[in-house]
Amino acid sequence: MTTIDSPVLRVAGRPVGRYVTRPELPARLSPRPYLHPVTTLAGTAVTELSPADHPHHLGVGVAVPDVEGHNFWGGRTFVPDRGPAELDNHGAQRHSSFQLRDPDGLVEELRWVASGAELLRERRTVAAGELTDTAWALDFTFSLTNVTSGLLSIGSPATNGRPGAAYGGFFWRARKEHDAPHVFTADHEGEEQVHGTRADWLALAGAGWTLVFAGATDATRQDPWFVRTAEYPGVGSSLACAERLPIEPGDTVVRRVVTVVADGPLSRDEAAALVRKAVSR
User: Fold this and answer.
1) pTM above the 0.90 mark?
2) Which terminal residue of the chain, N or C, has fewer Cβ atoms less than 10 Å from its own Cβ?
3) Closest CA relative to residue 59, chosen from 90, 87, 96, 20
């Protein structure tokens, strides 16, 4: 896999993430910009790229399995009364330009294209900032505007009939290790307890690292968390859980997720304190 034009994010002079702008990927992976590798300040990798279990999982980014029937997630498409199927319906997110590009962040314009037509135009803001000597924050905002003349709607396997599979939106494929990571919120712990719930923040802790995800706007906090730990380690913020998300022509959907990237384990109080500091920056 070769890449072109991949800026490196830095915190206090240390590289913490590479943003791959124009990946050369097969169409069935729904090519799109992504962050990988993302690391802690000590250098521990906390993302994974095209793992064997899900080759279409690409580090950190925005992936949506159903935009008016087009797959911007990659891999198979869930079809009602049929199940997961290989379809020739994959879209691509294409980099248009950088409005800003600094060592600690970027602002990017993208086009979401499928079947030769542009469906959505996105403005994406990615920023990295130091929190402590052992933690930093990744601030990730995306705005999706319907540039067609008709209504578009965003769906998920869950809205198409597969219970518990409301993935689509901001998604972080974490590092797979020998033991499954521990997941917890302020009130609950374990995949079964936190998957599909709404929580101000959610922590995923592996061997020597912790990620704490937080919705940073009211609309983002209304989106349930999509969580996997047993099958693979991944966390997302669900745009379409119980019903499809409509976007009228010219309208824009905005979401902002801030992620604390920390070395070592964090207690609930430590996770909450770091999230408050990260979101208020």
Assistant:
1) yes
2) N
3) 20
